[in-house]
Design goal:
Helix content: over 70%
Number of strands: 0
Strand content: under 5%
Order of helices and strands: HHHHH
Distance between the termini: 68 Å
Number of helices: 5
Shape: rod-shaped
Radius of gyration: 38 Å
Structural class: mainly alpha
């Protein structure tokens, strides 16, 4: 039996408690013999309802404060991420500018004349961008 089936077959405790209170109140009303007893029962019920309303109001206020706090934290995180993205975009633009200037200043890339020097050149010039496989270097 899944949780959804259980919820449909067994009512939540809140509803059971409300029904038990209703049955108890009806019994007290039937047993009350005077108007004074009925009035006292009504006043007691009103006080219980006031307490329940206050408790629900407090709970709602707490939930609202938690939601506002979470919203504030999410906005702060979003602002931090926007700042990081902006910084990284600026950094990429700077690096691209430097790369294009370096490419423009040189007569061309310093490519080795022989395959024997390719491994050392690739490690020095292309480090992090291109990796030569060991088998490729063995054939050189």
């Amino acid at each position: 039996m899944s949780g959804t089936d259980l919820d449909q077959r067994v009512p939540p405790f809140k509803f059971i408690r409300q029904h038990a209170n209703f049955v108890r109140r009806e019994k007290e009303r039937r047993d009350a013999s005077t108007d004074k007893e009925l009035l006292d029962l009504a006043m007691e019920e009103i006080e219980e309802l006031k307490i329940r309303i206050q408790r629900d109001s407090d709970e709602s206020q707490n939930l609202l404060e938690m939601a506002e706090s979470e919203k504030s934290e999410a906005e702060q995180e979003a602002n931090q991420l926007r700042a990081l993205v902006s910084h990284l975009r600026g950094r990429v633009a700077y690096l691209q500018s430097n790369a294009s200037q370096a490419a423009g200043d040189a007569d061309g890339p310093d490519i080795p004349d022989s395959l024997d020097a390719l491994k050392d050149w690739a490690e020095k010039v292309l480090a992090g961008d291109v990796v030569l496989h060991n088998r490729a270097c063995q054939r050189l």
